[in-house]
What does this fold into?
Amino acid sequence: MKIKCEYCGSMFDDTLEKCPNCGGTNNNVRRSTDDQPTTIEGLKEWYKAKGLPDEEVTRFFIGRDYKGSKAFGIYKDEKGKCIVYKNKADGSRAVRYEGTDEAYAVNELLTRLKQEILEQKGRAVNKATAGKSAVSPSELKATLPEKEQKAELSPEEIQKIKKGLKTAGLGLLAVIALVIGIVAAVRAYKKSTIPYMGYYNHNGELYYHCEESEWYWAKYNRETKDWEMLDYIWESDQELEKRKTAKQYFLGEAYDSSYGGYDVTDSLAYKDYQHGSWVEKGYFDYDDTVYYHNGYSKDEEWYYFDTDDNDWMAVPDDMLPVDLTHGSLAEDFWYTPEWDSETQLTDFEDSAIYQEYMEQYTTSEEEDDSWWGSSTDNSSDDYDWDWSSDSWDSGSTDWDSDW
It folds into this structure.
């Protein structure tokens, strides 16, 4: 984020301690006790500083487009876009983020890495506790009430306590194994009931099931002669929700002209669904007007450069070009995330409307911190890796989920 120097009025990055133009002190410099990285190279340094195991062990590949299964990663493609991904157990890839906001992309992977570190530490503790077989008499006595700790235990009593602890441990392991088995069985059963992906004809209407879940259907609207995405299945079409009742209406996975309508994958609704509900942040050139998108929600925080007033203005909702609200179309008009003196008239972040926005944002952020407590209060030591007591088992990670 850029701020205005209190001394010379020039704009500079709020993370700098001094203004690069006049050397004035930045009294509002933001520092993070967690040393939050904002670049891929910075994330590599963070990873190294925490003493984490090799990437082949943790399965977090920073700066690499790793093609193998069971992997988290981040890299930049040939166009400069940041890709945050997860390769599942079956080798398929789920893309968490694709765009030019490197700080946002890095934070996505960092958050998941931190979560994994804490989970691995927890597993290591549980494994060490469960695997404890040799129990000394002093450790056994420590489990007794203070009054009874003073009494000497006979060899027979010690054996009884050991046997009891062993039985309890085996019982706990049995319960855990049972729970894991039940979860796996439920997942397998649920997957077997999900309708096939592809085209369906139900009650004379053409549907398309977009992916392997109960949701995400498209329906061909015969009035508009176009496809539309459905948030849910109508009560009259609930037969489509389960494979057992839906399979009789199944037409096929690929489109055939005999189905009517047209191939759903050519529709704008489906392309937007594939792209996601977000639109890139940055500058857009549409119909000889320069626009700036200050967020990721497709229909919010849009501004345009008014050549008459020589300033940036908010775009009224009824004047926002429809093409810019479609993620699959808007990228055709996007050309840069940052100001370039050769392609833009003025920097949006120098405008009064942006400064007003940032003042409101900063105020609301400070209010959130005062109510919930600042996120920088958390100790970064939680993510340090101790080779003497911590162990990493990537096989215990959920590799079937999208993230």
